[in-house]
């Protein structure tokens, strides 16, 4: 089951909109966490967007540009060499926090992408991790 | 330091240092650098770290009841940070002095930790209205069989110093379960300027400059919206102008809707912008009434009514609670 609200900012939580904009900016990532579960129909409050980033220099360049355009605090967006080595970065956006899970992407991208599928958010296509993977990661880090 | 007032280890070391250096209410201020050197000597916390804690203890928009009074530039709610510790001065506030006296056993314990919470340091315990917490403690002292509901009603919901509204599952929070609190600024349509939207009482822990930038960002047409017009419509705010009017202790800004946009609709959309609304993860270690009862039970053989009066007097020096 997945959610497809018709239109309007209020229909989507901020974390989901932030993910959709990253997708519209052509950054390659998998949405996990509460925003992903919300898109899969779970009645959870969405506090932020957790994005597992596809590894690779070209994608990190694209991600950096997308985050620089999205953030309200440009100092939070590090350079590409820093993105290559950091496990995680958090960026504040007008839609809430975006956590970019870089290390998780380096370790688990291929496995997570197998269970993922695309969910439309307005007219942007967001790659969302499988529900089982989302719950598994959530249990690992939250409970 | 800790149990008798609820202040943390670093906070307690700062209060001790200020007292030893003579930085007390009604007396001279002490250079922050001297206080931090004393903290480093006592608990080994480097000045750069301890200063972050000290600044929190001073800033009136961070802690509901500041434990330290400051002189000099302690920054603002926007992007301006406090001046370096070589250029600021501090002394105990009346509430800081009460906390220290309680820790030393000079007076009975005071529930400052419960009042201030620790969400200002990314903890999960939110602040509560001082008069509510003190009132609930007095109620348990007076009527040990007061019900949980009565105590919850006396304490009231979490109360953040900026006056933002607090939503979320507060019943779960006070029952000892984790809850996501939604903090929201006041968003209203101006009486004086037709159609202009006034945003004030912003939630704490967000930069007011970032909030203004968030609104301006949402009002901008972005390059990706050409390929994704639906997403553009779902995210864009019909705002023609954003003006920051913040000055000294009052932080507020106004938004002028684009021609043809209904102010009421734009006001509702503004409430969804990050910073105008934020979320805070909150949790108490136990149900709130149990915390209060346990606290009273632990210290019932001390003169709690007297220490509560000391605390009330100290809190009366905080402008927001003066009346």
Distance between the termini of chain B: 31 Å
User: What is the arithmetic mean of pLDDT of chain A?
Assistant: 91
Annotation field: number of helices of chain B: 13
Largest sheet entry of chain A: 4 strands, mixed
Largest sheet of chain B: 4 strands, antiparallel
Radius of gyration based on Cα positions of chain A = 14 Å
**Largest interface, chains and sizes:** A-B, 28 and 28 residues
In short:
Chain A contains 6 helices and 6 strands. Chain A is α+β, with helices and mostly antiparallel strands and 143 residues long. A 4-stranded mixed β-sheet of chain A has the order 1-2-4-3. Chain A has a two-stranded antiparallel sheet with strand order 5-6.
What attributes does this structure have?
A: 143 residues, two-stranded antiparallel sheet, 6 strands, globular, B: alpha+beta, four-stranded antiparallel beta sheet, three-stranded antiparallel beta sheet, 39% helix
What can you see in these coordinates?
- Chain A is α+β, with helices and mostly antiparallel strands and 143 residues long.
- Chain A contains 6 helices and 6 strands, in the order H-E-H-E-H-H-E-E-H-E-E-H.
- Chain A has helices at 14-24, 33-39, 57-70, 80-85, 102-114, 131-142, and strands spanning 29-32, 48-53, 88-93, 96-101, 117-121, 124-128.
- In chain A, the strands form 2 sheets. Chain A has a 4-stranded mixed β-sheet with strand order 1-2-4-3.
- Chain A is globular and about 35 Å long.
- The two termini of chain A are 24 Å apart.
- Chain B has helices at residues 9-20, 32-43, 47-58, 94-103, 112-116, 130-142, 148-155, 170-174, 208-218, 229-235, 263-270, 288-298, 304-315, and strands at residues 30-31, 68-71, 89-92, 165-167, 179-184, 186-189, 197-200, 239-244, 253-257, 277-282.
- Chain B contains 13 helices and 10 strands.
- The longest helix of chain B has 13 residues, at 130-142.
- In chain B, strands 6-7-9-8 form a 4-stranded antiparallel β-sheet, with helices on one face. In chain B, strands 1-3-2 form a 3-stranded antiparallel β-sheet. Chain B has a 3-stranded antiparallel β-sheet with strand order 4-5-10.
- In chain B, helix 1 (9-20) packs across helix 2, helix 6 runs antiparallel to helix 7 (148-155) and helix 6 (130-142) runs antiparallel to helix 13 (304-315).
- With 323 residues, chain B is an alpha+beta fold.
- The two termini of chain B are 31 Å apart.
- Helices cover 39% and strands 14% of the residues of chain B.
- The model of chain B has no long low-confidence stretch (mean pLDDT 93).
- Chain A binds chain B through residues 7-12, 14, 17, 20-21, 24-25, 45, 47, 69-70, 72-73, 92-97, 121-124, and chain B through 180, 207, 210, 213-215, 217-218, 222-225, 227-231, 233-235, 268-269, 272-275, 279, 281.
């Amino acid at each position: 089951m997945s959610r497809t609200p018709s239109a309007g900012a209020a229909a989507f939580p901020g974390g989901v909109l932030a993910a959709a904009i990253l997708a519209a900016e052509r950054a390659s990532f998998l949405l996990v966490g509460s925003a992903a579960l919300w898109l899969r129909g779970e009645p959870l409050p969405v506090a932020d967007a957790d994005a597992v980033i596809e590894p690779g220099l070209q994608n990190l360049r694209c991600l950096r540009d997308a985050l620089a355009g999205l953030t309200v605090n440009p100092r939070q967006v590090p350079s590409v060499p820093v993105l290559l080595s950091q496990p995680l970065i958090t960026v504040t956006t007008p839609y809430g926090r975006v956590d970019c899970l870089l290390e998780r992407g380096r370790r688990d991208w291929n496995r997570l992408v197998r269970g993922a599928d695309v969910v439309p958010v307005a007219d942007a296509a967001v790659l969302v991790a499988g529900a089982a993977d989302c719950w598994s990661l959530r249990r690992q880090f939250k409970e | 330091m800790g149990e008798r007032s609820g202040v943390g280890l670093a906070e307690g070391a700062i209060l001790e240092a200020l007292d030893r250096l003579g930085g007390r209410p009604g007396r001279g201020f002490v250079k922050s650098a001297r206080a931090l050197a004393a903290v480093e000597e006592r608990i080994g916390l480097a000045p750069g770290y301890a200063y972050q804690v000290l600044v929190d203890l001073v800033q009136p928009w961070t802690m509901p009841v500041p434990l330290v009074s400051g002189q000099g530039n302690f920054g603002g709610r926007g992007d301006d940070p406090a001046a370096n510790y070589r250029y600021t001065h501090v002394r105990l506030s009346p509430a800081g002095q009460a906390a220290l006296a309680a820790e030393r056993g000079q007076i009975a314990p005071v529930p400052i930790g419960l009042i201030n919470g620790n969400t200002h340091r990314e903890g999960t315990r939110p602040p509560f209205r001082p008069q509510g917490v003190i009132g609930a403690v007095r109620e348990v002292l007076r009527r040990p069989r007061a019900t949980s509901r009565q105590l919850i009603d006396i304490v009231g919901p979490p109360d953040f110093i900026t006056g933002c509204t607090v939503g979320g599952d507060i019943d779960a929070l006070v029952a000892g379960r984790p809850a996501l609190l939604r903090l929201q600024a006041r968003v209203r349509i101006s009486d004086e300027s037709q159609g202009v939207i006034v945003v004030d009482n912003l939630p704490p822990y967000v930069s007011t400059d970032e909030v203004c930038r968030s609104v301006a960002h949402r009002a901008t047409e972005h390059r990706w919206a050409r390929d994704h017009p639906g997403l553009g419509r779902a995210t864009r705010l019909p705002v023609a102008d954003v003006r920051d009017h913040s000055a000294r202790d009052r932080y507020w800004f106004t938004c002028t809707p684009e021609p043809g946009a209904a102010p009421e609709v734009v006001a509702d959309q503004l409430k969804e912008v990050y910073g105008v609304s934020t979320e805070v993860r909150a949790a108490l270690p136990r149900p709130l009434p149990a915390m209060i009862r346990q606290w009273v039970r632990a210290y019932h053989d001390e003169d709690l009514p007297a220490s509560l009066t000391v605390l009330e007097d100290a809190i009366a020096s905080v402008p927001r609670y003066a009346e």
